[in-house]
Write a structure and sequence with these properties.
The complex is a heterodimer of chains A (114) and B (111). Helices cover 0% and strands 53% of the residues of chain A. Chain A has 114 residues and is mostly beta strands. In chain A, the strands form two sheets. In chain A, strands 2, 4, 5, 9, 10 and 11 form a six-stranded mixed β-sheet that branches. The termini of chain B are far apart. With 111 residues, chain B is mainly beta. In chain B, the strands form two sheets. In chain B, strands 2, 4, 5, 6, 9, 10 and 11 form a seven-stranded mixed β-sheet that branches. In chain B, strands 1-3-8-7 form a four-stranded antiparallel β-sheet, with no helix packed on it. The chains are: A mainly beta (114), B mainly beta (111). Chains A and B meet through strand 4, strand 5, strand 9 and strand 10 of A and strand 4, strand 5, strand 9 and strand 10 of B.
């Protein structure tokens, strides 16, 4: 039972255009969401997060949108750069629980072409 | 560099051998997490510590796995009698304010 789903294994975009990565979740107890970027042979790097009390959070080129009723979130990267090419993981947690453990999706490989 | 370090970065071992990994979290973070990532999957929660107390273990953590965090500082994850299915990247994360910061991981290959 996969509680966090990233249905697109890969995405390819042109440099300068917008990249949109999607994530769906099924557990209504999740109330805090994070996006991580991962290069091969490295650990995940934290990018941006959003609490369920918000519907948007922006940090530079990265914006995360949350639609609670649809249990859907998305990460927008604009403009996309070749250095953004990596695997992006969506993660969710129940901050009202005591353990703050993260549940991850399977990731989306983003390729930004020059 | 997140400030979380892991050692070794790579480990190749033969089936049946024991291995131990170390994680040094960010010093002021009192929570430490271990995850395992296999090919094509996202990281999966294994266990976590608050200070020196191990508070939760996933069912993924069989009795061949043991983790410690003496004195609430660094942590070790030991796998006894390794199996080929243990081949994965083992990730450690340090937690503060609802965000986990990951180390570079230890990639284990069991032959």
């Amino acid at each position: 039972d996969q509680q966090v789903k990233q249905n697109s294994p890969s995405l390819s975009v042109q440099e300068g255009r917008i990249s949109i990565l999607n994530c769906d979740y099924t557990n209504s107890m999740f109330d805090y969401f994070l996006w991580y970027k991962k290069y091969p042979a490295e650990g995940p790097t934290f990018l941006i997060s959003i609490s369920s009390i918000k519907d948007k959070n922006e940090d530079g080129r990265f914006t995360v949108f949350l639609n609670k009723s649809a249990k859907h979130l998305s990460l927008h990267i604009v403009p996309s750069q070749p250095g953004d090419s990596a695997v992006y993981f969506c993660a969710a947690e129940n901050s009202g629980g005591s353990n703050y453990k993260l549940t991850f999706g399977k990731g989306t490989l983003l390729t930004v072409n020059p | 560099d997140t400030g979380v370090s892991q050692d070794p970065r790579h480990k190749i071992t033969k089936r049946g051998q024991n291995v131990t990994f170390r994680c040094d979290p960010i010093s002021e973070h009192n929570r430490l997490y271990w995850y395992r990532q296999t090919l094509g999957q996202g990281p999966e929660f294994l266990t976590y510590f608050q200070n020196e107390a191990q508070l939760e273990k996933s069912r993924l953590l069989s009795d061949r796995f043991s983790a410690e965090r003496p004195k609430g500082s660094f942590s070790t994850l030991e796998i006894q009698r390794t199996e080929q299915g243990d081949s994965a990247m083992y990730l450690c994360a340090s937690w503060i304010q609802e965000t986990q910061y990951f180390g570079p991981g230890t990639r284990l290959l069991v032959l």
